[in-house]
Design goal:
Two copies of one chain form a homodimer. Helices cover about 75% and strands about 0% of the residues of chain A. Chain A has helices at about 5-10, 15-25, 45-55, 60-70, 75-110, 115-125, 130-140, 140-155, 155-180, 185-205, 210-220, 225-230, 235-250; strands spanning about 30-35, 40. The first copy, chain A, binds a DNA duplex through helix 2.
Chain lengths: ~250, ~250
Amino acid sequence: MGLSIGDVARTAHVTVRALHHYDAIGLLSPSERSAAGYRSYSPADIERLQQIVVYRSLGMSLQDITAILDDHTVEPLEHLRRQHALLVERSEHVHRMIAAIDKTMEAHRMGINLTPDEQSQVFGAFAPASYADEVEERWGETDAFAKSKAKTSSYTKADWAEAVAEQTAVGERFAALLRAGAAADSQDAMDAAEAHRRQITRWYYDCSYEIQTGLADMYLADPRFTENYENIEAGLAQYVHDAIHANAIARA
Amino acid sequence: MGLSIGDVARTAHVTVRALHHYDAIGLLSPSERSAAGYRSYSPADIERLQQIVVYRSLGMSLQDITAILDDHTVEPLEHLRRQHALLVERSEHVHRMIAAIDKTMEAHRMGINLTPDEQSQVFGAFAPASYADEVEERWGETDAFAKSKAKTSSYTKADWAEAVAEQTAVGERFAALLRAGAAADSQDAMDAAEAHRRQITRWYYDCSYEIQTGLADMYLADPRFTENYENIEAGLAQYVHDAIHANAIARA
DNA sequence: ACTTGACCCTGACGTTGCGTGAGGACCTAA
DNA sequence: TTAGGTCCTCACGCAACGTCAGGGTCAAGT
């Protein structure tokens, strides 16, 4: 027996009514019901709900969400990659909007009137950019998008094995350097950090230095991740963290 | 006679139907009608529409927008300031969402399960943060908000005169330095750039170095702003631009 | 065993912000 | 003068829930 609808609503910050609605339209039907007809949500249901919440926050319609979540050719991780990409796009969009406001205020400050053309541009920045627009902006026509989708969703078991192997290799590389006494800001350690970043970019998502240092911080802050490295070698979490930071600074 | 409804719709990237709707609910009623009953939008109408579009993109309801736009104790510039602040908040929100996805992906990568507590946090990042939440997050209770509103919306004519005077003074300061042959990356020029930034922060909105360099770029890119400086002294636009950039780099 | 309060269920109607025609006037250019 | 594009006013439709209404369920306390 999983969580009750109220518990789910609280942890996911959605209303009970919304969950009823998702059930009614077949977007998220809890995998179990109690004898009295109470909905019971399993961990898998919760995971699906997270995808729903994220896609919703990006402005996707419930119909479309149903469609892509029920598309079993799409791996769960692929959803996270897409969401990441869409969020980055969203972030850039917000920055364009801020720039547009800046421009308008500067014009006010200077007592300047914007030309219709400039005005249209300002308006354009605030045009309701749906997720669909953003997706197309990123991947061009549906054709290219389909291709990209085909590529990333077609990871075979061998691919996944290779990804895991690469990841393990990077961990080992750090550990070897640590054992050899190489400083965290040595060239070798920074190269390993770069490999870590490229590995994520290759198999998961475009990992900027900013994002990577965020991950490094998390490796120390969250005991779960810390343990993962400490199990390989004592002090490795801190070492990886320092190497990533050193590398990020050096490349900036 | 102003613009036709079709023209407005095109430049503002909204549908004709939306404009009809705004008229019907009294949010934006064009200031004139032709003999045949055609709507005619004045420049003031367009300006109001921009405010509407921006607030809408922030998720505000049409009712609320009507209320705050019809509140005549709020200066037009105050709307831009608010919108700027809300957008910055929105930007931070998006970054929190990206971080949440990063964390989820890292957990996947490492084969780790998130605790309910962590899950709740991830969900929290995607909770539909309405503009209202964001406003309260920034300004606390309605009381504090009312105060801030009272403060910023109560600029007197004398205040405005002072703001304009300060702005002119900053321009003159740059011009004097340019005439005196001080380099754009000299300490004096960078101090002037800092004064430029502080002036905007004081009278308009919190101007970060990133935003300021954006403005500097605009001074060169947009002939309107360029002219404004060139009228004071030849080469001043470029000079101001360089000083702002030098200062931003020095302070980073 | 019984009550009480918190929680759950299923309808069912209301709301917001428009989309989408229907049916008809208007207006410029050929 | 006729065709196209644009404009007008109803008026119904729709998504994603909010909001009662009327009624079971359940654990805790008495």
